[in-house]
Design goal:
The strands form 2 sheets. This protein has a 6-stranded antiparallel sheet. Strands 2-1-4-3 form a 4-stranded antiparallel sheet. It is built from 16 helices and 10 strands. The chain has 3 domains: 80 residues, no CATH class; 138 residues, GAF domain (Beta-Lactamase); 176 residues, Hypothetical protein af1432 (Orthogonal Bundle). Helix content is 49%, strand content 14%. The protein has 455 residues and is an alpha+beta fold. It is rod-shaped. The protein starts with 5 loop residues before the first helix and ends in a 7-residue tail after the last helix. The structure holds fe (ii) ion.
C-alpha cells in the first residue's frame, strides 16, 4: 500500500480553512516540512524553534516547526494521517474481498458442470491468469499408478521443462508432501530449488486437496522478481480448493465412465464368444467406424454414440438360437428371418438401459440399406441414422475380410471393390468415400493388435 503523503494531506480542500483557523486561534506561526525537510507550508513570521514529528504507523512522514503550541497541530496531522491509512486499508481489503468473491463466483459457474479433468485444469489456468501476476502456471495431478504428479494443464512453460514431480522433491513436491500452500519470493535461493527447471524468480504453490487428501498441486510463477503477498496466497489457496473439488468430481465421473464402457464392451464380447469364428469382430467394427466418423467430422456426441452403437450393434444376437446363429451351411428363408430379428432384439435390450439410448439407432438400423431394401424398417438414405450407415459399412467390410468355416474371407482389394460396387445401393456413398479417405489400414492393424482399447 502506498504511504500517506503529508503534502497531499494538508492540501485537502476541507482541511485547509480549518487548519488556518487553528493556527490563528493558537496565536502562533508554523512551518510544515515533509520527512526530507522540503517546505510544504509556512505562515507569516514563522520560526523553526522546535520540531514535532507527524507519524503514520510509527514512521515519520513530516515535521511541524514552531513554538510548543504547534505540537497540537502535529498530533492532529498524525491523527488524520492514521485515519487516511485505515481508510486505505479498508478499501484495499474490500477490493480483495470483491476480487475473491468474483473469482469464486466465476469459478463455480464455470467448473460446476465440467466433468473433464483437463477442462477443469484449463478453466483454473484461465482464471489464475486473469487474477494473478504470473508468467507461467501449471496444474499437476497425482498418477496413482506411478505415484508422481503429472502436468494436466499448463501455460507459459519453456519447452522440455520436466513434466513430473516426485513427493518431497522440489518446492512443488514439498507442498504435495506437507499439504500446505507456500509463497517463495526468491526461488533460486530456496534450498529445494531444482536446477534445470523454469527460469522462475517468484512462485506460489498450493495443494489440491480433495477430502483431506492431496491429489495434486497448482504451481504459479513469475520470471520477474515480484513479491507475492499473504492476500494473494489466500486467494490462490481458495482457487486451489475449488479446483480440487471440481477435479475430484470430474475424475470420479471419468472413473464411472470407464467402468461403464468396460462393462458395455465386456457384455458385447461375451455375446461374441458364442461364435468363436468372429473373434474381435466387435473391436474391428468399432475401430473402422471411429476412423470413418473422424473423417466425416462427427460431433463429440455423435462419436460417442457411434462408438457405443458399433460395440453393441449385434447385441440382439443373444436372442437367436445357437442352431441358427452358429449354422455353418446356408440358412433357410425361415432361419434368415430369425437372424434378421437381432436388430430389433438389440433395440429391446438396450432400451432398458437409459445411458445407452443414444446407441439404439446404430444398433437397430445397421442392416438398413441406402436404397431402402434393408431391415428391419426399410429406411432409405438419410432416414437411416448416420451412425447406422457407418456401422453398416464397417460391419460389412469386416464380415467380407474374415475367414469363416464355410468360406475364406475376401482379399482387401476384393472387399474394397465390393464397397465401391454397392456404394449408393447398399451403402451411403459418402460413408464409403470416407472409408477410403480414412486411414482404414491403420485402423485395421490397430484393431488386430493386442493394444488395450481406450474409449
Ligand atoms: Fe448385425
Amino acid at each position: 500500500m502506498a504511504p500517506v503523503s503529508l503534502s497531499k494531506l494538508i492540501k485537502k480542500r476541507a482541511l485547509t480553512p480549518l487548519f488556518y483557523r487553528l493556527v490563528s486561534d493558537l496565536e502562533t506561526s508554523v512551518v510544515i516540512e515533509d520527512a526530507e525537510g522540503k517546505l510544504l507550508m509556512a505562515t507569516d513570521g514563522a520560526e523553526r524553534c522546535t520540531r514535532y514529528p507527524v507519524t503514520v504507523t510509527g514512521e515519520v512522514i513530516g515535521w511541524v516547526n514552531g513554538t510548543e503550541k504547534v505540537a497540537v497541530i502535529a498530533s492532529l496531522l498524525t491523527c488524520l494521517a492514521e485515519s487516511e491509512m485505515e481508510k486505505r486499508a479498508l478499501v484495499s481489503e474490500t477490493l480483495n474481498k470483491y476480487k475473491e468473491i468474483t473469482l469464486l463466483y466465476d469459478m463455480v459457474e464455470k467448473v460446476s458442470s465440467c466433468l473433464d479433468t483437463k477442462e477443469v485444469a484449463r478453466l483454473v489456468i484461465e482464471e489464475a491468469r486473469r487474477v494473478f501476476r504470473l508468467s507461467s502456471v501449471a496444474v499437476l495431478l497425482l498418477n496413482r499408478e506411478t505415484d508422481v504428479l503429472e502436468v494436466v494443464g499448463e501455460f507459459g512453460h519453456e519447452p522440455g521443462v520436466t513434466a513430473t514431480v516426485s513427493r518431497g522433491v522440489g518446492i512443488a513436491g514439498s507442498v504435495w508432501a506437507s499439504g500446505r500452500a507456500e509463497i517463495v519470493n526468491d526461488v533460486r535461493s530456496d534450498l529445494r530449488f531444482v536446477e534445470g527447471t523454469d527460469s522462475i524468480c517468484s512462485l506460489m504453490c498450493a495443494p489440491l486437496k480433495a477430502k483431506e487428501t492431496v491429489v495434486g498441486v497448482i504451481n504459479l510463477g513469475n520470471d520477474q522478481p515480484v513479491t507475492y503477498t499473504a492476500e494473494e496466497l489466500k486467494l490462490f489457496t481458495t482457487l486451489a480448493s475449488l479446483a480440487a473439488v471440481a477435479i475430484d468430481n470430474a475424475s470420479l465421473y471419468e472413473q464411472l465412465q470407464e467402468t461403464f464402457y468396460t462393462t458395455v464392451y465386456t457384455l458385447a464380447e461375451t455375446i461374441e464368444k458364442r461364435d468363436p469364428y468372429t473373434g474381435n469382430h466387435t473391436k474391428r467394427v468399432m475401430e473402422y467406424s471411429l476412423a470413418v466418423g473422424k473423417i466425416l467430422k462427427l460431433s463429440e456426441i455423435d462419436m460417442a454414440r457411434l462408438q457405443l452403437g458399433a460395440v453393441l450393434h449385434d447385441i440382439g444376437k443373444i436372442g437367436i438360437r445357437d442352431n441358427v446363429l452358429l449354422k455353418e451351411s446356408a440358412l433357410t428363408d425361415d432361419e434368415f428371418e430369425q437372424i434378421k430379428k437381432h436388430a430389433v432384439y438389440g433395440e429391446e435390450i438396450i432400451s432398458r438401459i437409459s445411458q445407452l439410448q443414444s446407441a439404439i439407432p446404430g444398433i437397430k438400423h445397421h442392416h438398413e440399406k441406402f436404397n431402402g431394401r434393408g431391415y428391419p424398417d426399410g429406411l432409405t438414405g438419410e432416414e437411416i441414422d448416420i451412425t447406422a450407415r457407418i456401422i453398416s459399412v464397417a460391419d460389412s467390410f469386416d464380415a467380407m475380410t474374415t475367414n469363416r468355416p464355410y468360406r475364406s474371407g475376401l482379399s482387401l482389394d476384393e472387399a474394397f471393390g465390393e464397397l465401391r460396387k454397392y456404394a449408393g445401393s447398399q451403402f451411403d456413398p459418402i460413408v464409403v468415400d470416407a472409408f477410403f479417405a480414412a486411414d482404414v489400414m491403420e485402423a485395421f492393424f490397430a484393431a488386430n493388435s493386442r493394444r488395450k482399447i481406450i474409449f
